[in-house]
Model the fold of this input.
Amino acid sequence: MDQLPIDAATFLILFARVGAVLMLLPAFSEESVPAQVRLVTALGFSIGLYGLLSPKITPAAHADAALPMIVIAEMLVGIAMGMIVKMLFSAASVAGSIASMQVGLASALVADPSMGGQSPLLARLIGLAAVIVCMAAGVHHLWIASIVDSYALFPVGGLPPGQDFAMLAVRVLGQATSLGVSLAAPLILYGAIFNLGLGLAARVAPAIQVFFITQPLNLLLGLSLLAMVLGTMLTGFATAMSGFMAHGWSF
Done:
C-alpha cells in the first residue's frame, strides 16, 4: 500500500502524454468518436504501456511538489507529437481538395469534424479512406512505437524543446503540402488537358456555351480517373506515412 501513491502518480504522468497524443492522432481524434470512447481508449493504451514505461517515469513521480508541472510538460509533449502527425495526415485532405477542384466538385461541401468545419466531398472521402488504409497497413503500430520511443528523446520532467518542435512543424507542413500535390498529380494533369481542350473548343465555336455543356463530361471523366488511381494514391500515402514514422519523423 505504501507504493500505491507512487504508482498512481506514475500512471497519471504516463496518461498525460499518451492521452494527449491520442486526442490528436487520426482516427482517434475524430469528433464523431464519442469523448467517452476516446477517454477509455487512452486509458487502455496507458494501462498497456504502463509495464513497459513505468521504470522511466517512476523516478519523476517521487517529486511531489513538481508533479503538476511534470504533468503539464507531459501534456505539451503529447500535444506537440500528435499535432505533427495530424499535420502530415492533412496531405490526404489536400489531395482530395485538389481532386474536387479538378473534377468540378469544389462547391460540394460536407461536414468534416476533423477539420473543424466543412470540406469538399472528395477531401472527406479520401481522408476517411486514408485512415482505413493506414490502419489496415499497420501504420498505427508505428504511432504507438513513436510514443514509446519519445521517452528516450524527451525524458519525463523536462520541458519540450519548443524551437525544435516549431522547426519540425514548419518542415512537416511543407512536406504534407508537397505530398498532397504529388498524390493528386494525375488529377492535376487531367484538369490541365481537359481545360485546354475546352479552351480550344471555345475558340473554334465561340457561340456555343462549351463550359456549361461539358460539365457533366468533366464529372464523368474526372470521377472515372479518380476511381482508377485512388488505390495507388492511398497506398502511396500509407507508404509515405510509414516511411515518415520509421525514419525518425523525416522523409
The first strand starts at residue 109 and ends at 112. Residues 4-246 form one domain. The first helix runs from residue 4 to 22.
